Structures are given as structure tokens and as C-alpha cells.
Amino acid sequence: MRRKQMMTLSAKVSASLAVLLLACLVAVPLLGGCGDEGEEAPTPAGTPTAGATGTPATTTEAPGITDTEIILGADNILSGGMGAVYATLTDATRAYFDYVNDTEGGVCGRKIVYKVEDNQDDPARGLEAVRKLVERDKVFAMVGSLSEAAHPAVWEYLNEKGVPDLCSAGSDMFGADPQGHPWTVQMIPSYKSEAAVFFGRYISENLPGKKVAVLYPNIQQGFDHLAGVKEGLDPDKNEIVSEQTYEVTDISISSQVSSMKNAGAEVVTTIATPPFTAQAIQQADRLGWHPDWFLSYINSDEMIFQFVSPELLEGAISDQAFKLAIWTDEPAIVKHHEIMRDYGGPSPSNFSLYAQALAEVAVEALGRTCDNLTREGFTDALESIKDYHSDLFLDDVNISFSETDHTGLESGHMLRATVEDGKGKWEYFGPLYEYR
């Protein structure tokens, strides 16, 4: 039985609590369980189940599990400036779960119920939302939580409570500490890895001699981006001449753009969200400055062309691991459009593609857990996933997890913004890159 089972869930849990949990574990065979949630000590996951449907297995009374339902939860940014964008991920995940409920009867003979709370991109609000989901709604696991500002607090809480956390947050720490935070599994690539490989290394290999500026928000997401660029750049080939930070509540970043221009930067990397990215590119154009732009994958959707004109964005580089939502001649994309349409999902985008893939991974893990439908069994099942391929992925992209690797997507291709008939679009180019 692995160390994480019913033992220290976080460095913050006291030794006395560990002793109490151990005593509880010993008492389980005699007393039938103890603790807040009434779970028996889980047994190691057995052979993965074939498929997601079937007769409900006899299990302990894990939180969020009934004879007919599996209750999953998430906290996401549903309001504010970016609420309209990030809410589409929640809507797409729910649409896929509803599709599985309708066409396959759910998972393990149970329907998936998906409960989502608004974290307002705020740590205190996020923790409040997650406590409600865990302590009042009794969710079995968290799937798709998203907020780089809120998730650090949520991450600690979920690991202290022993709640599985298949998250959509990209800060490096969420996948980098499987021993100290064994319940958190990160689906998307680390922002630090993206910046190191797709930006830093690519720039030194293809744009040697050019001066680099880095634009990033003053949160962990931004710190990861800066660290990754520095890690990937060859200092003998490229110099960082400007590091510009901004607050996510700022109205304008014009001064930061001016500083980058005045420093003589010829290349800019940024992990800014689409509105800030657009503002930076537009301000640079007003100053008559047109550097090479490298944009995080959070910008690599056609919606970016609604924020900034295709002509100004042309030539910008980003990265992704998915087939694109506009590839409507691809069977998997056609099916995605159908699911979003028929089950109340959002208009298809690269965001909704990711959200469906996340839901597919959750269903895959649940399907492997039918004989051990416990939180520990679900986490074991996630860690058993090797070379999993969604039809929504690019053909050479797979994901794997393990006890020592809690980041799923670790490869992808470069994208370049192009203009065709006056409309902007993203096009893939180059070989497969590994994020590591």
C-alpha cells in the first residue's frame, strides 16, 4: 500500500493527525471505518475495467458515490472579465459527461453529476467554493478546476482532505510535487515547461542574436513563464533585455510595452491572457514597433482574432497538442461539434476540445475504478494511464501519468498565426516537441 494511502496528505498535516489516521486504519477491520467521510481503507486498484459501463460494483460508501450517481466537482472562473471564456470549459466538460450518461448509461453503472462553483479568480473565493463542494455537496473528486490565482490555496486544502484533483491549472507546482501533493494531477502542460521548450529553446535555435523581452502577470503563472524562458534560452545566443510584469487587475499595460520597446527588444514572449495580449500587440503597433511575438497556448484559439486584427497578429507563434476546432473534415472534430450542439455545450473552440479531452480522461480513470470506487482507487487509476490517446489529440500526441509524474500533456507542435482572405487562423508547423 503506497505511502499516500491514509497517511500524510500534505507537509502541512501534523504528526498527531498522521497518528490518528494510522490508528483509524488499524481499527477499520473491527469498527467498519472512521474519520469524517466514513471510507474504509482502500485496497490497491485491480485490473483496469474494460469500458465505462456495467453493473454497479459493491464498494465502500465513498463520498459522492451512490448506487446511481458519481458526483464530481470543479471550481472555475465563471464571472468577471474572463468568465465568458473560461466558463466554456466547464460547459464543454459537462456536455461530454451528459453525452456519456445518455449514450453509455454513465460510468460503472452510475450517472455522472457535475457540480461547479465560481471561484471568481480569487484565492479566498476559490477556497470557499471548494469547501462547499467537498464538505456540503460531498463530491467524489474534483475535475477541471481552473484559476492560477485561486488554485494554490485549493490545492493545499484538497490534498489535506485526500480529495482527487484532476485540475486544469498550469502552474508548474501542481504537477511537480506528487510526493507532497499526491492527490493533484495536472492535465495541461506546465507553463514553465512550455516557456523553456517552445519559447526559450526555439528562440535560441531559430532567432539567435535577437534581444528578448518577457511580459508576464505578477502571479505564479507569470513567474513560471519567466523561469522557463530563462531556462530554455542559450545566454550565448540571446539576451533578455526587459522583464515586464503587470497586475491582473490593471487596466493598461502601455508603460510595460513602451519599456520593452525602449530596451531594444526584438522578440517578446508572454503568458498574458487574450485581452492583455491584444492590448500589448496593439500598443506596440501604435509605437511603430513590431517584434516577433511568442504567445502561450492560452491564446492559441481563433477567438484571439476577435481581440486583435489578423494583420497585427500575423506571424505570431504559439503551441498546442490538439486538432483544431475549425478542422471540420476530421471525424473527431465533427463528433465534438455534435456533442457540443446536442448536449448544451459551448460553440466549439480549442478550449472546448481541451475540456472534452479532460472529461474523457476522467471517464477513462473512473472506468478503471469500478471494482474499487474509492478516492484512492480513482487516483491509482489516473496513475495507471499510459500512452492514452484521445481522437482529439494530434496523431503523435499521447498522455501518461505515474506515481512520480503528475502532468499529462507533455508534447505538442508549434502554431503560427496566418491570414487567409482577410481572416486569421492558426496553422501547425515543425516537428513534435516534448515539453520536458
CATH architecture of the largest domain: 3-Layer(aba) Sandwich
Question: Structural class, from secondary structure content?
Answer: alpha/beta
Q: What name is given to the CATH topology of the largest domain?
A: Rossmann fold
CATH class of the largest domain: Alpha Beta
Largest sheet: 5 strands, parallel
E-strand count: 12
Can you give the helix content as a percent range?
25-40%
In percent, how much strand structure appears in the residues? Answer: 15-25%
Radius of gyration: 22 Å
CATH superfamily of the largest domain: Response regulator
Instruction: Kindly give the count of domains.
Output: 2
Question: Count of helical segments?
Answer: 14
Strand order of the largest sheet: 2-1-3-4-5
Shape: globular
Uncertain ranges: 1-59
Taking the alpha carbons of the first and last residues, their distance comes to: 29 Å
